[in-house]
From TrEMBL, chain A:
Subcellular location: Cell membrane
The protein, known as: ABC transporter permease
Domain of life: Bacteria
Provenance organism: Streptomyces flavofungini
InterPro entries attached to this UniProt entry: ABC_transp_permease
Biased composition (Low complexity): 1-17
Keywords, in A-Z order: Cell membrane, Membrane, Transmembrane, Transmembrane helix
Transmembrane segments: 26-49, 55-75, 87-105, 111-131, 138-155, 179-198, 229-249, 269-299
Main location (coarse class): membrane
CDD domains: TM_PBP1_transp_AraH_like
Length: 337, 525
């Protein structure tokens, strides 16, 4: 589209180059995963209808979207880290600690101090992760697993169970609706929009992709790859902080199991990968991740409606994730051939 | 060191020396470059061209010597500094992000912004303009790099350098990955860049294009500058002589007597794959066959094809009379073919494992009832290769390069091969161990093995081989008898492009640049 402003020759060249892109639209995982979300919804509707139920009620759809929020916030942040070729396994414990810090701070102080405390904690954990990965050159898997253990130790030493209390004013975030739409959904969409803008439209975002794509090439081109990775970790942890605030608002208190019970660490990575972001970095984006989150949420809802036993449910989720990534890998191989 | 040029000197390197771990790889090399000049840098593999280039690019700091750009002294300690000073490098391996667009690659690290956000339109417009300036109409700024041919990716690299206002462009073997007609297009591009006032330092093995493109040629040999001459005052023969002129000094074991050469062990007819064309080859028991050629000529590909690691896709191959074209190393090993690879640390050894575990690796992985249990004769085997280690349980990473190589050879001998392929058998091996390995190789041939040696060291190759195959551009360009001169080998290796006599019809390209000088050695094969 910008080609119109160019001299005729490059415009023609750009048109030529667009042709394979058009054909590749469907092959783009970010598009594919949204189509898959649509397909899963349709399938769920048919299956539930066949059992005499109604899948697409307003209450059910709103429920699905509401269920997307916490995982969505974490997965969107996780996307930024994975794009640089890193990874964050400390998110689950950071959520737990975040809810506890939020609830205990808000019990004595104001909502604002609570929010700031959680975000400061998150930024600090992200910074630590980034520095360990880039400075000490510890593999991200191990580095963030280490911080996860440290956070867990801190939680188990200081909290025996649910702690603190969130004021009613803060619970609006978790329970209020604008019309039928939960307010928290706007939080997720806003955070996603900001991350989309950062990754796609800022220099930092470009360097994020470059660092994950080929760190050596990026460095030779003058990109400060270490800073990029550190910033990505901070960004991710801030998103996790947002998720913690949302969960604190839902639960009304802080809970040591808030992040770990739902396994946000592995679940978020699954959503990112399902959304077409390559685990090695350099390819993908937050839009696909959101699609991945939606697919998982719809699947959950279908299984709940059908009353399927948890074993079968997990088997299907596992199969879906493996099949999706195998599909992406095949497409990638065909392209490079 | 040179008479004043008509045009002013833009870049000068004076007395550049560099050592790695006490080994001097550059000895006081001086070189200058004028605006608008194409200055070619030639030399054998390991002559120091790449090191000189890396010093210029800021990847290595020189031990001695001065680099002056536009009269200003520089001492680069990081590639970014050299880039900022206006020196751009096109490496053999591109530094491009495959999954990003052309424009994103061209402006990587220097993205233009507007209101704090990347100005995509400005980036794409400027990329399009740079591409048009170069006369490249086939590349759009929004195309993904992965969708471009190698030649076009190279153009993107060049545009990337131009986008940062380089004055000096260093090109390291730019035509090596290109087909003939693409090389012709690149030559035209290089001329246009020079006409725009860039100074171009052009490293190449292809002497014909060097004579065609450059105004001056500098020849390096063993890290020393042999000569710098105006291209119009020289020719292929003189350059080749300058590249190789040195004496054979090392000792090599006596070659095979005619009665020692026996039956054919491995025969290939019409073998080919993506990198090789029309390979006809016979390896005989008792004979050491050498394979010469420049980097990228297909020597390693040949060894890997014979070993099934990068298999032939066409042609026939027989091992000891039985038809077999291996599609995996395992098949080759079962048939009795072994390959001592070029990269010992990555492909030859499990560095953190013991001598014993390494030596038994192949026999454990590919068991064979007809073979005696290797574990029992391990001690004898290690004595045979004259391994010097603290014991069989020492980890191989603590051994010297020469002893590591002996472990690799022992590993293959344990598998009782009938054909032994060596890719750079003495790379990174000290002089004493070299002689031991040479003697060992000859002894193995005497025992009836067929041996193939790929080596970039011509003295070694000539000293060891009973006959020499010279490769160029994926084919066997010719065969030379034992004791051929280095000049004869180099001439075949550098001027073989489109050699008549080899009847291989593919790649016949109407756009192929016509030979500019009649080749005196045509038909040497």
């Amino acid at each position: 589209m910008t080609g119109t402003a160019l001299a005729p020759q490059p415009a023609r060249a750009a048109a030529k180059s667009r042709a394979p892109r058009g054909r590749g639209r469907l092959a783009d995982p970010a598009v594919g995963v949204w189509l898959a979300a649509g397909a899963v919804t349709a399938l769920g509707w048919i299956v539930v209808a066949a059992r005499g139920g109604d899948f697409l009620t307003l209450a059910n759809v709103v429920g699905i979207l509401q269920n997307c929020v916490a995982l969505g916030l974490v997965a969107v942040g996780q996307t930024a880290v994975i794009l640089t070729g890193s990874l964050d396994l400390s998110v689950a414990y950071l959520i737990s600690l975040g809810t506890l810090v939020a609830a205990t701070t808000m019990e004595d102080g104001s909502v604002v101090t609570g929010v700031l405390a959680v975000l400061a904690l998150s930024a600090a954990v992200g910074l630590a992760n980034g520095l360990i990965v880039t400075g000490l050159k510890v593999n991200a898997f191990i580095a963030t697993l280490g911080t996860a253990f440290i956070l867990r130790g801190w939680i188990e030493d200081n909290y025996t169970g649910p702690a603190g209390k969130v004021p009613a004013s803060f619970q609006h975030l978790g329970y209020d609706r604008m019309g039928p739409v939960p307010v928290s959904l706007f939080l997720l969409l806003a955070v996603t929009a900001v991350l989309w803008l950062i990754t796609r439209r800022t220099r930092f975002g470009h360097h994020l992709y470059a660092t994950g794509g080929d760190e050596h090439a990026a460095r030779l081109s003058g990109v400060r790859t270490r800073r990029t990775v550190i910033a990505a970790h901070v960004l991710c942890s801030l998103c996790v902080g947002a998720a913690a605030l949302f969960l604190a608002s839902r639960l009304g208190a802080g809970a040591p199991w808030a992040g770990t019970e739902a396994r946000y660490d592995l679940e978020s990575i699954a959503a990112v990968v399902l959304g077409g972001t390559v685990l090695a970095g350099g390819r993908g984006g937050v839009v696909g991740t959101l699609g991945g989150v939606l697919v998982l949420a719809v699947l959950d809802s279908v299984f709940n409606q059908l009353g399927v036993d948890p074993f079968f449910k997990n088997v299907v989720r596992g199969v879906v994730i493996i099949a999706a990534v195998a599909l992406y890998a095949r497409r990638g191989a065909r392209r490079s051939a | 060191m040179h008479a004043k040029q008509a045009t002013h000197t833009m870049l000068a390197m004076h007395g550049v020396s560099k050592s790695f771990l006490g080994v001097r790889v550059l000895h006081g090399v001086s070189l200058d470059l004028a605006a608008g000049e194409v200055h070619a840098l030639v030399g054998e593999n390991g002559a120091g061209k790449s090191t000189l280039m890396k010093v210029l690019a800021g990847e290595h700091a020189p031990d001695e010597g001065v680099i002056t750009l536009d009269g200003k002294r520089h001492r680069f300690s990081h590639p970014a500094q050299a880039q900022a000073a206006g020196i751009g490098i096109i490496h053999q391996e591109f530094a491009l992000l495959e999954h990003r667009t052309v424009a994103e690659n061209v402006f990587l690290g220097r993205e233009p912004t507007r209101y704090g956000l990347v100005d995509r339109r400005a980036m794409e417009d400027r990329t399009a303009r740079l591409l048009t300036d170069l006369g490249e109409h086939g590349i759009g700024p929004r195309t993904y790099v992965r969708d471009l041919s190698v030649a076009r990716q190279q153009t993107v690299e060049i545009v990337k350098a131009l986008a940062s206002d380089v004055r000096v462009l260093v090109m390291d073997e730019p035509t090596a990955p290109l087909a003939d007609h693409e090389a012709g297009l690149l030559h035209a591009l290089v001329r246009r860049l020079a006409a725009r006032g860039l100074g171009i330092l052009y490293i190449s093995h292809r002497l014909r294009e060097v004579l065609d493109l450059s105004q001056r040629v500098t020849v390096l040999k063993d890290g020393r500058q042999v000569t710098t001459v105006r291209t119009q005052d020289t020719d292929t023969d003189r350059i080749v002589r300058a590249m190789v002129g040195r004496e054979l000094s090392a000792y090599y074991p006596p070659r095979a007597r005619p009665d020692e050469v026996g039956e054919p062990r491995l025969v290939v007819r019409g073998g080919g794959n993506a990198r090789l064309t029309g390979i006809d080859l016979t390896l005989r028991a008792g004979e050491v066959t050498g394979v010469a050629g420049l980097q990228g000529a297909g020597r390693t590909s040949l060894a890997r094809a014979l070993f099934g690691a990068a298999p032939f896709t066409t042609g026939t191959m027989t091992v000891d009379g039985a038809a077999l074209r291996p599609t995996s190393p395992r098949q080759a090993i079962r048939a009795g073919v072994a390959l001592v690879t070029e990269d010992r640390k990555a492909e030859g050894l499990a560095l953190r494992q013991s001598v014993r575990d390494n030596a038994l690796l192949v026999t454990r992985a590919v068991p064979d009832r007809e073979r005696p249990a290797a574990a029992e004769e391990l001690t004898a085997l290690l004595a045979k290769v004259r391994l010097q280690a603290r014991g069989e349980h020492q980890e191989t990473r603590y051994l010297s390069g020469g002893n590591q190589q002996k472990v690799v050879i022992a590993k293959w001998l344990a598998a009782r091969p009938r054909v032994l392929l060596f890719d750079e058998p003495t790379r990174g091996v000290d002089v004493g161990a070299k002689a031991a390995i040479h003697t060992l190789v000859r002894d193995l041939a005497r025992e009836g093995l067929a041996v193939l040696i790929v080596s970039s060291e011509l003295p070694e190759l000539i000293g060891m081989s009973d006959r020499i195959l010279v490769m160029a551009e994926g084919r066997i360009a010719g065969e030379l008898p034992a004791g051929a001169t280095e000049e004869a080998v180099m001439r075949l290796a550098t001027t073989a492009s489109g050699t008549p006599g080899t009847t291989t019809p593919d790649r016949a390209d109407p756009d192929a640049p016509a030979p500019t000088t009649p080749d005196p050695q045509e038909g040497a094969a």
